[in-house]
Write a structure and sequence with these properties.
Pfam families: YmaF. This protein is mainly beta. Helices cover about 5% and strands about 35% of the residues. The chain is built from 1 helix and 12 strands, in the order H-E-E-E-E-E-E-E-E-E-E-E-E. The strands form 6 sheets. A two-stranded antiparallel sheet has the order 1-2.
């Protein structure tokens, strides 16, 4: 990235300038234009809350966070997720998968679509461990729906 020698500045001037003009200043006082916001790929996560499909006359509540990674609304990134369903009909399921690509929103934020299946094995919590419930047939549930907008962003120009 090119630098533009303008003049040497004090640290105080550099901080004020960076906060107002969204530019970076090198140690030697040279100005470097900051990348446009769309070019930044900030670390963030998403929340998903929904219900699974009905199988064997029951469904499960699903509530989890997608793993954080760097991405923007326009780069098509995806997130990994894993978790557990809530207990229904005396058991729960594990779930592991990937979100769909980022879907931009008019305000510059984005969300993802989840379309996955639970693990087929029904589990029950046994205190410090969980075990398969043999009295329930193996089955899966589908989870489909949008995540929330990205969460956990830090202001890249915040100076402490």
């Amino acid at each position: 990235m090119p630098t533009y020698p303008l003049r040497h500045v004090s640290l105080r001037e550099a901080i004020c300038c960076c906060q107002k003009e969204l530019i970076h200043v090198t140690i030697d006082g040279h100005f470097i234009p900051a990348p446009a916001f769309d070019e930044l790929r900030p670390s963030h996560a998403h929340h998903y809350h929904g219900m699974t499909s009905v199988t064997l006359n029951h469904r499960h509540i699903v509530d989890f966070y997608l793993y954080a990674l760097n991405g923007s609304a326009t780069d098509g990134h995806i997130h990994r997720y894993q978790g557990l369903t809530y207990i229904a009909d005396r058991h729960f399921h594990r779930l592991i998968g990937n979100s769909g690509p980022a879907i931009p929103l008019p305000d510059g934020s984005h969300y993802h679509l989840i379309d996955g299946l639970t693990d087929e094995e029904p589990f029950i919590n046994r205190g410090n461990f969980y075990s398969t419930v043999l009295s329930i047939d193996r089955h899966t549930h589908r989870l489909v729906g949008p995540t929330g907008r990205g969460i956990g962003y830090e202001d890249p120009f915040f100076l402490t």
